[in-house]
Write a structure and sequence with these properties.
This protein is α+β, with helices and mostly antiparallel strands. Helices cover 64% and strands 10% of the residues. A hairpin with a 3-residue loop joins strand 2 and strand 3. Helix 1 packs antiparallel against helix 5 and helix 1 packs antiparallel against helix 7.
């Protein structure tokens, strides 16, 4: 028989865990982690340059400098697995006053996620930048680890429900705590990586960068996982202490 307090704590922790997992999954699958705001383009020379950047972005070989320059110039957004640019739907958009804009995206393939970063983006002779390389790898591996921990916790919790036991609750709480820390580390790695990229890159004039809603979703999911972990640990500890007291009372 489970006390109502413990049952309430378990239900609330399950709701928090589900919300955190949904938020994190949406954040991983969307590209609005960081977004650039570029000034309007005037003049056919600039238009031709941007068109060539766009074509290289969509069809060219993977190169950090190429896609970074395109993101800077074409109102780009970049996430963990996607990079997108905002381009006109009409090829002769520079002659029109009212232009319809569409977003075109490319995904980071798994081999591209492990591609080394260089001290000077695009210059392979400048030497590998180990810090940026491992920050990039951590930012896409850690959220997958976080989701894996939550799935494992869910499987253990399901088995515990079938066995009608609160014994694994402490372990489930620890798994949620680790998941929350992995998500928080993901956001920190991403922000540090973007800051280092901006230090080694030359941003065009009047180009502004800002954090996107996908990053905020990931940031929100971290404390939700931690709150779920706190409730689970509290329920496990309190139930264990109450159980030992009842056992000691019966023995006495």
């Amino acid at each position: 028989m489970v006390d109502n307090r413990y049952a309430t704590a378990l239900v609330i922790s399950c709701v928090l865990s589900i919300l955190a997992t949904v938020y994190l999954s949406v954040a991983i699958g969307t590209q609005h982690w960081y977004q650039y705001s570029s000034p309007a383009v005037r003049g056919e020379a600039n238009v031709s340059e941007l068109r060539s950047l766009h074509e290289e972005f969509m069809d060219g070989e993977f190169d950090e400098k190429t896609y970074s320059d395109t993101l800077f110039r074409l109102n780009g957004t970049v996430g963990l697995w996607w990079r997108c640019v905002l381009v006109p739907a009409n090829a002769h958009w520079f002659k029109e006053t009212d232009v319809k804009m569409v977003m075109e995206c490319r995904s980071f393939t798994l081999p591209q996620q492990f591609t080394p970063k260089y001290k000077e983006p695009g210059n392979h002779n400048s030497g590998e930048d180990m810090l940026r390389t491992y920050l990039w790898r951590c930012q896409f591996l850690l959220p997958l680890v976080s989701l894996g921990l939550v799935v494992l916790a869910g499987l253990i919790g399901f088995c515990a429900c079938l066995c009608r036991s609160l014994t694994p609750t402490l372990g489930i709480g620890v798994l949620h705590l680790l998941a929350g820390l992995c998500t928080l580390a993901t956001v920190c790695c991403y922000l540090a990586g973007m800051d280092l990229l901006h230090r080694v890159s030359v941003l065009p004039d009047k180009v502004d960068g800002s954090l996107g809603w996908s990053l905020y979703l990931a940031l929100i999911s971290s404390p939700l996982h931690m709150m779920a972990a706190a409730l689970l640990v509290w329920a496990a500890r309190s139930h264990s202490q109450n159980y030992y007291r009842m056992t000691a009372y019966r023995v006495a």
